[in-house]
Amino acid sequence: MVSAPPSQKKRATGKPSAPSAKTTTNKRTSTPHERSSDGKVAAGSSKDSRKRKATETDSESGSEAEEAEPEYSTAKIPILREIERYIPKSDFKKWPHPTEKQQEDLRGILKAAEAAALMTFRREGARKEAHRAITAVSNKLLGSLHKTHLPPMGKDFTLNCNDLIHKTGELEAILEPTLRYNAELEKELEREKARLTQDEKDLAVLQNNAKAQHSIRVEKSRKLPRALRTEPQGPKYSSADSIGLSVSSDLLDASTYKLSHDKSMRELTAQLAAHIHQMENNTNALGDIPESIQRSRGVIEEVLERGLPKLYHKVMVDL
């Protein structure tokens, strides 16, 4: 284990350094009870005493600040990510025990893990305590290596820590485009959620405003005179003659009526036919939209389910 420099050891312990010889002399000469040869109190004793107290207070506050430093550092150390898999106990018992070469590789991995773990401790005391705990755990693991079951591995597969880290880096490089795309999808999803939240807030404001305006209208209608509150009664028409509408005799007989001879309806009929034709074209154009939406939804579901199953469950089920 690499020991820290003397300066770091002082800072790690958090104890103030011992006073120098000059400080000791000042303590002796600044005693308020010591008198000079003529029996008077020394003039600089009170000032030296205040200076000594201020120095001791500063050293104590500095030691407390050093002790408050974080015990762990955030050094970026390559760490192999663990993957949990459920394996039947019957299959686990069939796995072979590690060979001598594999046991040696596992010992190397444990030693590398010890060094990486100790690098995260900054204080000397915490590092020593962690070294004792890690050594005890490592010895226990090393003692039971010959009883451990390992999954079947190929001949070219090694348990070297550097090889495993290199292999992990290669796999992460392969997965990097997919992970980047998934991160972009997550960002887009967060933006859509933010927009949805804002829309819900705006809708709530509009609903509150509508209720307030309705209450205001009801209150104003109550203050109106009774004559103004009643609905206006318009004239009632029972037939075409009551409104003064004259109908041609040709229109009364449906058998003799021909639309092509009716000049007043010919132009209107042409306009209606044009509108109907345009509506049919719009309907045909919109007919492909539901199919496109279903295809897009299927692609998004496939990407989410393949890349992020938890995100797929959250988007498709929770929302």
From TrEMBL:
Residues 57-70 have a biased composition (Acidic residues). Signal peptide: none annotated. Keywords: Coiled coil. Residues 1-75 are annotated as: Disordered. It comes from Sphaerosporella brunnea. Residues 20-29 have a biased composition (Polar residues). This is CENP-Q, a CENPA-CAD centromere complex subunit-domain-containing protein. Residues 182-209 form a coiled coil.
